[in-house]
Each structure stands twice: as C-alpha cells, then as structure tokens.
C-alpha cells in the first residue's frame, strides 16, 4: 500500500509538469522563512517565503532527493520515493552546532553530512575570527594550528601536516603563491572579503590531487558572481597591539542577465608589541653590547601593509552562469628574525644587522562557469580556469635581494553525471602547469617547472540510513629543474675582472604517477545521530623544494638540502646527488561520531594515518660552515655539490629532506550546549601524535590543547569570552627543543543596529588579555617570535 501511494504521488507530481511544493516548519509548527530547498546534485533551489512555503518547477522527473537547510537547524534529506502525500510538510530540528554546505567538492557535502571531517567558517563566525593571515584566522579550529612565522605570515597546519601537503585554494583553484615552499611566505588569500572558508581535514586528494594529501583550505568569495541581487558589506577597524588600521568593502549587484562584483581591502600596521623580549633566553644568547640594542616589548621588523581588490562580471543564463574576474594583491612586510651581517665580510667588528622586507605582488585571473544540463549522460558542467602571476622580492638595505616568482595556469572541469542505479557523482579532469623560480644569493631552490594532469571519478548513493561515497583519481606529474651553476671571477694584471659560469649539476627530469582511492559511509544510526567512516589510500609526488633545495633559507634560519642529495659525513663534508626518490604513500582511517540536533550537539573525530616514504626535514646537527668549499672545482664526474654562496649568513643548521615511515594519529572533539535561548557554551580540544616508525618523533608537531567559549546573543547584543590552553610539547624530534604551556584569554562585545537598508554593527574584541608570553611549537621562529601581546580591536561593520 505504501509503495502504491508513493507511485501515485510521483505520477501526480509529474502531471503538474513535475512541480514540487510544500511547507517547512520547526517542531512547533512555526513556519521557517528563508529555508533553502534544493534538488540533489542540481543548481535548482528556492527559498521559503514568510509562511515557510516553497515551489519547485522541474524539467523532468529525474529527481530522487531534496535537501533542506536553514540557519540554526539541522539539515534534512528527503527521499521522494518515500513520501506519502503530494503536499510536502517538512519539519526541521534546531541544532546547537552550525551546519553549512561545502562548495569545495562536486558532491553534496555539509559539515554534518560527510564521511570525512569538514569545518566551515561563514557569516558572523568568520567575521569574529578573521585575522591578518589565513593561519591566524583558522588557528582555533579543531585540528588546525598555524605555522606562525611571526604575525606577518602564517599558514594552516592540519593534523600536524603543512607545506606542500595542505593545499590552499581560492574558489577551488590553487592560490599559486610561494607559501607552500616556506613558512616565511605569505598565503595570498584574504579573509576580510571572503564569504566562507572551508577546511577538509584528512586526505582530499580525490578532489584536488596529491598536493592535498593532508587536507584542503578553500577560501570562497563572490569575485565571479552567480547572482545579480544587490548585496554588500564594509568594515573599518583599528588594532592596538600594532597600531593597525584596516578597511574592507564588498559589493555584488547588476541588472537582469549581468552580474557585477567588486571587493577591496587595505591594511597598514607597525611592529607588534610582545610581552618581554623576542629572543627566548636572550640573556644567554647575546653579548651585553648586543642586549643593549635589543628592543624589549616589540617584535622588530614585523610591520606590514597590504592592499588588494577584485573585480568580476558574469553572464547569467537560464541554466547557470559564466563569469570572469581579475584580482590584484600587494603586500610589503618585514621578515622577523631575518637579518644578517652587512659591511666588510672580513671585519665583522664593522658589520651591522640589516633588516629584510618582502615586497609581494600578485595578479590573478579566474574564469568560472556552472551550467545545468539535461542530457542522457550529464546533469551539469562546472568549469574553472585560473591564471596567476606571482612575485615577491626580498629587499635588503634598500637593494633587491632574492626574487621569487610563480606563474601558474590551471584548468579544471567537473562533469556532473546523471544518476544511474541510485549513484550520483562527477568525472573531474584537471591540468596544471607551474613555473617557479628563486633568483638571488638566498635562492635555495633552482628554477623549476611542474606539470600535472589528472582524471578523477567520485560517486555517492543513499540506501536507507546510509550514504555511500566512493572515489578514485590518477595523476601524471612531471618535474624539471635548471642546473645548479656557480660563477667564478678572474682578475688579470691590470685589475680587470671577467666572470665565467660553470655548471655544477644537471638534474634529471622526474616523473611520478600517484593515484588515490577512497571509500566512506555516513550512517544515520539513530534519530539526531550519525557516524562517518572513511578509508583513503593516497599517493603524493614530492614538491620541487623537497627535491632540489640546496642553500641557505634565511627566513627559517636553516640551510636546506633536498631529498636528491645524500650527506657524506667525512672530513670534507659534502652532498652526493642521487635519483631514487619515491612517492609518499598515505593510508588514512577516519571515524566521526556526531549528534547534530537538539540543545546539545557534539562531534568526535578519531584519525589514524600511516604514511610510507614520508618527506620530512631532519636536523643533521651540522652547520653550513661544516661543508667543504667546492666552489672552484669541477664536479661533472663525482656529481658532488659544495657551498657556493658567499653571502655571510653565519653558521646555519643543515636540514635535509629525508624519507621515512611515519604514523600520525589523534583525537578531535567539539561540544556545543545551548544553556538557554541566548546563551551557548562551546568546549573543544584536539591532540596530535606524530612518530617515526624506527623511533623518535616528527618535528614541529602541535601540542595538546583545550578550548572554552561562552557566547550570549539577544536583542542585537553579542558578548563572549573564550579561553584556550596549550599544553607543554615535550614529545620532540632529535635536536628539537621543547615548548612551554600557555593559556590565552579573549573576550568580545558587539551591538547591531538594524534598519531598512541593512545592519550596522559596532564591536570591540580583546585578545591575549593577560599579556602572556606564548610561543607556537609548530613555528620555525618559536625561539625568536612569540605571539602578540594584549590587543584590542575596535571596529564598525555594515551589511546591506
């Protein structure tokens, strides 16, 4: 009887040109205005009116699911083959945990409906947490820590992994900067103009390739608009800790079939105030004369100024849109701890410390198209093309030092497949070419080019209380690097000089074919509860920096040597070129338990990641002064390389990229408890353990931490207090120092004035209110750059 009623219902809907209508309410029967009702796997969606009602007109009856969502409520999936009445009445349950859809994948994914853990920052939550850098914006998200290269540069560390293992994307396209090469390089994504930021924890290689073996951070903005509805926002702010002023503006609008977008920001600040001295144990590491010149209470050379804008336009079609955007970013900032002797190299008593600044410029073009289709094979095509021209110059004593350049062209096409036997998914084809170069005395990698081409297939299916997700991806990666050269200067009797170039080493072209497989399920095992399980086998091709590095990386205060070199620890220490590196292989298991409805919501994640041939930087215990000087020898036969750099950087510790079998595992927890209608308590914490299978620990693994937040919202007022405690990290790698525990206290108050044109919010935020000295264990600069001291951020934000 039930099947008969369902069949009659579907036939009735088909007779009405397959129109679907109904009402969305809460559990008390109160209509929910502004709820989103969308068809599974399609771009067709509508919002409910003031009575909670909606109507969808479909072109065919090939729709099996509806997805319904609203702010403050748990998402719901409705299977049309199970409905018993043509008049749909959909009830949503309130949720203490915010639930947001993810745009980073071609499959339907939300923070509570994914086999792998996902975090999304959007709306007021994103506005409250936004900072000058992406790493600092995300540093309090579960499972995410910052690299923290002082306040001027910071990238996300996901579950202990960073660098080339964590992909940073803008609207699902690579940011294509130099931040994956070194932690002293800025991520060129701006949180102040973003719509939302999505974090995919664990391997996301199926969607983004081997560079996402540790996770993905996708910054979503509206630079390529998909609607001509007029919306906008602006923000003005001032921070006391560095006397920084910031302003940002976004606007999207248009007429009929043309949508236009503009956003821009500007930020200008001085050196940061810190508790005490920047140098850890400074009294023991400097002479009395040097201590006199060491600034107390300020992190020298940490000032920064930046500005940028994006302009875009789209042609809106009946079945989607196609648009183009151009963006420009400029940033000038100091590099804390990056200084060296200048003057007479043979007479250090006459030398002085010279600060270095980074001058960054990036031009970025994006073409984005999303089109719905109704063919026998395809239900849609999503196309993304990005071209990025990036450079930053390190300037020393007002003279150009090292020039870093990165030019990237990337194309990605997702073919959204029609549902077959209940399976719905996408075929993704992607190609990318990256030209990277570092030119100058501090260039620690030779110019190189990386080409990749990939094909991936992702599928999902609902069966009863289970959502099944499967995927596979294969890539072809080719890496080429220029030869390492040195220049010899000859002087004749008349004191004229001539320079002669010599080739020390020619690199072979390297080719890799990494592939990835994934299987996962989400099980709604009880009302308001679900469990997610995923298994991922993923391979990663090494990055050019991990392979070819050979030279001083002054930003991190180290001498970096790539995995293509073996150290010969003889009397005349040198490195020998080899060519037997392998892909990194990850076997990752994720288990997630969630309670997603009611006054108490929680998420528990357990992960276990077994990685073979893991690339990591080992401290050899040697310094650059221990290397034999082969600058005036020919090495064509022995293929050895010596220290060819003449700039005086002092004795830099030598870090070598090596491969080893490793294991990372951990726990991530979050609990939200709505104590009353205006008052919510949030508790969270995470723990990461990284070990070498042959014994010892991985370097720079973040410590255990616990967090607390109490938030009150009522009648336009928002107030909150938060506390986070970082435990001592004493599980350290060989020659790595421990990091003390610390506790950070913050608070905020906001008031929103609502009017006919929109909302106007005045806010005051306080950070590190106890002015505690805190050092980030995952930072290369932890002994030279503590976190900023007490800060107050006063601002005004308007939305219309």
From TrEMBL:
Q: Name one GO cellular component term.
A: cell outer membrane
Record's keyword terms, sorted: Cell outer membrane, Membrane, Receptor, TonB box, Transmembrane, Transmembrane beta strand, Transport
Give me any GO biological process, just one: siderophore transmembrane transport
Q: Does the keyword Transmembrane belong to this entry?
A: yes
What subcellular locations does the record give?
Answer: Cell outer membrane
Q: Does the keyword Nucleus apply?
A: no
Q: Which InterPro entries does its entry note? A: Beta-barrel_TonB, Beta-barrel_TonB_sf, CarboxyPept-like_regulatory, Plug_dom, Plug_dom_sf, TonB-dep_rcpt-like
Q: Where is the TonB-dependent receptor plug domain?
A: 111-216
In residue numbers, the region (Disordered) covers 337-356
Coiled-coil region: none
Q: How does it sit in the membrane?
A: Multi-pass membrane protein
Q: Which family does it belong to?
A: Belongs to the TonB-dependent receptor family.
Q: What is this protein called?
A: TonB-dependent receptor
Upper lineage: Bacteria, Pseudomonadati, Pseudomonadota, Gammaproteobacteria, Cellvibrionales
